[in-house]
Design a protein that fits this description.
By secondary structure, this protein is of the alpha/beta class. The chain has a single domain, classed as Rossmann fold. The protein is 35% helix and 18% strand. It contains twelve helices and 14 strands. The strands form four sheets. Strands 3-2-1-4-5-8-12 form a seven-stranded parallel sheet, with helices on both faces. Strands 9-11-13 form a three-stranded mixed sheet. A two-stranded antiparallel sheet has the order 6-7. The C terminus is likely disordered. The structure holds nicotinamide-adenine-dinucleotide. Nicotinamide-adenine-dinucleotide binds next to helix 2, helix 6, strand 5 and strand 9.
Amino acid sequence: MHVLILGGDGFCGWPTALHLSDRGHEVTVVDNLSRRAIDLELEVESLTPIRPIGERLRVWQQVSGREIGFVRLDLAAEPERLTALLPALRPDAIVHFAEQRAAPYSMRSTTSKRYTIDNNVRATHNLLSALVQSGTDAALVHLGTMGVYGYGWSGSAPIPEGYLTVKVPTPDGDVEREILHPASPGSVYHLTKTLDQLMFAFYAANDRVRITDLHQGIVWGTQTPQTARDERLVNRFDYDGDYGTVLNRFLMQAAIGHPLTVHGSGGQTRAFIHVRDMVRCIEIALENPPAAGDRPKVFNQVTESHRVRDLAKLVGSLTGAPVAHLPNPRQEADENELNVRNDQFLALGLEPTTLNEGLLEECREIAGRYRHRVDPTKIIARSVWRAGMETAEDLLTELPERAPSSAGPASERR
Ligand SMILES: NC(=O)c1ccc[n+]([C@@H]2O[C@H](COP(=O)([O-])OP(=O)(O)OC[C@H]3O[C@@H](n4cnc5c(N)ncnc54)[C@H](O)[C@@H]3O)[C@@H](O)[C@H]2O)c1
């Protein structure tokens, strides 16, 4: 099948493009390279040295003999080009990763809030309207987030896959209904994903667009068998305060002798999935699209849940790194449960990579190998959810001293 990977230069999109190409699918990456521009804005780079997109694609062709197409296009700002592109490329399926994906970045300033809404909401709506206007019957797979359910909304009750069965009281007794699970966004970024869900419900019902929405947990790990085939294909690894997700941050902190920074009590529970399982889930979703006229199919794309302080303890026990508690910049309960159903992917053949299996490899092969590229000034989260909240920076001076030589001299970092 011909698959368009929107956002195919990013952390999830790049390994997905290579995985599907390796499986024999025709693949075209569409990306506006905005994530690389945000690196410049934040003055930080991926811990792993990622190559320009043209070089990545040339190297993939050399090592695999397979060609991946590339179109530089902004989904949010170029709806007409997008509408013309679809009938020109005639994709069988589209995977939509092309959104601003960091909650802390979305809360950084009024400008970044506006950018996240403008970019994500317009990108998704432009895509849906382009599919309809161009008469393109491609199955759409979108990357959503576990965060649409909110953290702590359901206590210990398992979070269902997208839809909730409710009883509606009527004069004739209770009537059972299945409704879209109530949205409870915890940041402007999560807000855009809940708006995406409503757009999907509308376009599936009104225009019979075939849509799968993957409510994904935090992706950890860096390499897939394809990205590991040549160093120039390496996937990105974000470790900075805005884009670095919690587990990657801990691994990199441990590698340079920096304390593992836990926000608040660390009692927040989060759901995780390894990058190798993520690409496999996308393939499974592409193989099992809904029928035209069906409501959007929702999968919870997660394999395990952990409390943040337990993760810190685990990484600390593997590496000897100490743990430091900093103020939590987010507005959320200190402790929460997260019990998630993921029966559909398991039933369709997913065999999860567990934290216990992959963590040591990640410590050695990525965080250890590239630690000389770390800029330690970028590690601490500086975005706060409301003006006036205490920032982690306020406590920075209280952190135990980090090993000064382990990050290497500044000249080696870039
Ligand atoms: N990384 C995770 O842990 C995680 C977890 C849950 C959900 N997700 C979702 O998966 C998707 C991909 O995440 P990621 O970690 O790969 O993010 P990323 O920022 O690394 O990749 C996103 C890609 O989309 C591109 N892009 C953004 N806006 C665009 C636009 N308007 N037009 C064209 N291209 C555009 C960027 O340049 C980038 O290459 C996101 O939608 C994110 O919300 C990611």
